[in-house]
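Letters spell out the chain; backbone shape is given numerically. Take this protein:
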Amino acid sequence: MDSVLRDIEREKSKMQADTENLFRHYEKLAGFVRQHLEASTIEWAKLVTSHPGALLLVVETTRVVDESGYASSGESEPIRFSTRQLVSGEAWDQLLHPTYARNVRGSEYHGLTMDDLEDKPRLANVWPEIVETLAGHPVIVFGADYVRQALRTVYQTHLLDDAFCLQNKCKEYYGEFYDLSLEKILGYQAIDKKREELRDSRDRLSMLMMVVRNLAAGMAKKVQEPEPSDEIDDFDSHPF
């Protein structure tokens, strides 16, 4: 019986040693992957900041609601397109009358009301100009999937299928794949911007340009976290 117990203990020790070795190899591999993602994000940012055609895009949206304020299907539609080229700084801005919505929601995010959009064209009326502005350019969007879905609520198009998602690039760079809001990214880059300063999409484009340039410079993550605010609970609930 004693020999059997010794054999069990010996096998147990071997298994524990194998498990510890496996964890060490995993941590080393994870470190290599982390370094690769960080380096590839820096190279991507360098490329887009030097590309003469690369541009940042912000699409403001509103929930599709009827006259009573009820959402038709939980979808959103575009009410503003704003771009800025990374090299030249050339900007373009287009306000849109909602195609389906009868009221504008999300003013706390984008600062727009129905009065601002009453005399503006609908998406279909300016679609050729939008295509001309975006087609053939490397387009960078924070929250690209959200923007694609909002655009397809009104217009079935593949225009933004190849757009780069800046939020995903930041997730790769900082190694945070589940909870990385725009507010947290600003804190990591020590960009002192208050929420109320980000409502205008043109101001937000300037800030996003700083984010991309800081990635290209390989800026290390700052230790300070952004201070909480009661105004808007979560930037990710309305991606930019």
